[in-house]
Please model this.
Amino acid sequence: MTKLIVEHVGVLALLEDRGRSGLAHLGVGRSGAADRASCDLANRLVGNRPDAACIEATLGRLAFRVETSVLVAVTGAPVAIRCGDREQAVNTSFTARAGDTVTLGAPTAGLRTYVAVRGGIVGQEVLGSMSWDTMAQLGTPPLQAGDVLDIADEAGDWPAIDFAPVAAVDAPSFDLPLLLGPRDDWFTTQALDRLATQRFTVSSDADRVGIRLDGPELPRLRSGELASEGVVRGALQVPTRGRPTLFLADGPVTGGYPVIGVVPQCGVDRAAQAVPGTRIGFKPFRLP
Amino acid sequence: MTATSACVPVLRPCGDTAWLLDLDDNRLVHRWAAAVRQARLPGVCEVVPGLTTLLVMIDPDVTDAASLRADLRELEPSPELATGDERHVIEVYYDGEDLDAVARFTGLSVADVIAAHTGTPWRVAFCGFAPGFSYLVGGDPRLRVPRRDESRVRVPGGAVAVAGEFSSIYPRVSPGGWQLLGHTDTVLWDAAADPPAVLRPGAVVQFREVN
Model:
C-alpha cells in the first residue's frame, strides 16, 4: 500500500469521513466532516467512494508527502496549494507525483479545508468510522508531523470532472434558515422576535462541538430544567446563563437545555466555515 | 390506529432530519423505541431516548422528515421495552470519595446510603455525556443529591456516582461533577465490542455491595 507522510500540521488536522451511525443511543455521536458538502466534493473530485476519509485541516498550513503518484483534491476553505514545484487550485483534482510535498497555505476565507487522495486515506477505524470525535475522543487521533498513513486502493471509477464550481465558502455576514423547535415554546415572543431580527456574532469559542454566539439575550417563558433529550447537528441550544450554541459535527447526543430551533443540514456546512467575528442572521420558520 | 388514540405522542420538529416524540415517562420512551426499531422505517438511522422523549433521526439521502412524520404517526408503542427483561448486576466497592458527603447531605448513615443505592433496581433512562455513559433512574428518592460544587478534572473509569435523580458508572476516565459512591471492576465500555456499551437504554441495573 502506498503511503502519505504528514510533514507539518497547523492548528489541527484530523481524518474525517461521513461519521458513525446507529450508536447515538449509547452516547456515541456521528462526528465526521464538519463541512460535509466540501468533504463529499473532495472525494468526488478524485473518484473516491463517498465514505472515504479526508484530512480536515483547520486554518490550513498542512504539508504532506506522497510516496507514489496519486490524484489529490483540496476543497472547503480556499488556500494556496503548492505541489512539488507547481501551484494548484482548490476545487480541482491534480496529480501529486512520487515524492512530491503538497503544502497548503492559510485560508483566505473560511476555517476548514479538506484534502482527498484517490483511494482513500486510511486511519484507525473505530465503530465503523475513522473520524476523530473531539468530544468522545474516538477514532483516528489528531494527525502529527511524522505520521505515516496508508492510502487504500478503494476508489470508484475515474472522475468525469476535474473542476467544480463552488459558491464562496465564507462571507463576513450571512443568513441561515432555522426551523423553530423542538423547544421554541420555552421562549418569550420577545426572544423569537430578537432571533428573527437581530444578528449574532461567531465568538472565538468555536470548535467541532459547536459555535458559541454573541448576541441579544433570548428570554425564557418558563424557568426550570429541561429533562435531557436527544440533540441533532444544527441545533441552536440556549443555556440558562451564557450564550446560545449552534452544535456542529461533534455535538452532544443528549442535552438538558432547550433547543429553540435547528438549522437544516446544508446550512450547518456553511456555519462550520464561519470564522470568529462572522455575523449570522437566522431566518426562523415553521412547518406548515 | 387513528390520531384519536391516546397513544399518539406530540411530535416536535428537529430540523430537516429528525422528530422528537414528547412522551410522559421513561418506560413509555423505551416502548416507543422498541416500536420504532421493530418497524424498520426506511432511512431511520438513530433512535435516541431522552428522559421523557425519543429522538428519531433519518438519513436525508434515503428519506425526508415529512415521510418520517407520516411513518411515525402510523406506529403505536410496543407492549415491551426494546431491552426486554435485560438485567445487569453490578458489583460495587463502596469506597468513593464523596460517600461521607452524600451521607451528610442526605442525613443517612454511610451504611444506609449503600443500602439505599443497592435496595432498588435502577433502569438506564438514556445515555449521553460520553460514550457508554448511562443515566440510571428509579433509585431510592432519599439519595437525591446535588452535583459537586466543583467538577473533578479526572474521574476514573468504573467510578459509581449519583447526582440529582440519577446514578451512573463512568465508563472511561473523564472529567465529572457527580458524587462518587464507589467503584466497580465491571468493564462497561469496549469500542471493539458489539455493542460497545454493556448498559443499553431500557436495561435494568441492580447494584450489589462487595467487600
About this structure: The first helix of chain B runs from residue 26 to 39. Chain B has two domains: 10-73, 87-209. The domain at 10-73 of chain B is CATH 3.30.1360.40 (Gyrase A; domain 2).
